[in-house]
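STRUCTURE:
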């Protein structure tokens, strides 16, 4: 999605033709997070530092921090910008505040989509010192990604946009606004999401999203 000032917000729905989407509930995310943690444990890797890629990696990284018993948790905020007639640019909005010399790092995001975010994050980590090891982890790995994570809970072969509960308002408001949905017509809004994007959103959640749309959230 191209936002104000020509920027791409990391994690926002790409606004071209209607895209197929999948909504992941909090319960499913918790299960995926535990599955991901088991795969890290079973591999024998013991990170001394978990680094979340903001914004999408914050919740998965916190689940891993809890399950792996690793309190050292930091983050790096990455954004994607595309100005008119220029190639996309990945920038580090908020860099990692610490050096990483000697650390065994687990770099965490929610999804590996294009892979550009991981490429930028890994380069940034190398600029912050000489870690002993760096491995990457996501809830969903899309096979089209240029980066294959060391750990993933689920593989996505047929591309679709993944909507996580921590980004559901942003993503659904974007989809509904693009379709010209009326925030005072929940039945029509639900139909738009079903027909255009294959989504079936719980009524109470849709009501909250339509309130956000009405209030002008995520313009």
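SEQUENCE:
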């Amino acid at each position: 999605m191209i936002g104000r000032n020509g920027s791409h917000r990391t994690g926002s729905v790409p606004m071209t033709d209607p895209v197929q989407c999948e909504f992941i509930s909090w319960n499913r995310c918790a299960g995926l997070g535990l599955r991901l943690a088991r795969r890290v444990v079973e591999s024998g890797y013991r990170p001394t530092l978990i680094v979340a890629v903001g914004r999408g990696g914050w919740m998965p990284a916190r689940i891993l921090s809890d399950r792996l018993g690793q309190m050292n948790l930091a983050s790096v905020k990455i954004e994607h910008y595309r100005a008119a007639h220029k190639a996309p640019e990945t920038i580090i909005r908020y860099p990692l505040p610490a050096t990483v010399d000697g650390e065994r790092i687990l770099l965490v995001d929610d999804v590996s989509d294009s892979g550009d975010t991981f490429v930028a994050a890994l380069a940034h980590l190398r600029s912050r010192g000489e870690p002993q090891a760096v491995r990457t982890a996501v809830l969903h790995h899309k096979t089209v990604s240029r980066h294959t994570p060391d750990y993933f809970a689920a593989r996505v072969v047929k591309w679709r946009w993944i909507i996580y509960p921590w980004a559901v308002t942003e993503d659904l408001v974007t989809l509904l606004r693009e379709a010209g949905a009326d925030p005072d017509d929940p039945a029509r809004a639900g139909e738009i999401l079903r027909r255009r994007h294959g989504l079936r959103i719980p009524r109470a959640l849709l009501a909250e999203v339509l309130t956000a749309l009405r209030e002008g959230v995520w313009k």
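REMARK: The first strand starts at residue 7 and ends at 8.
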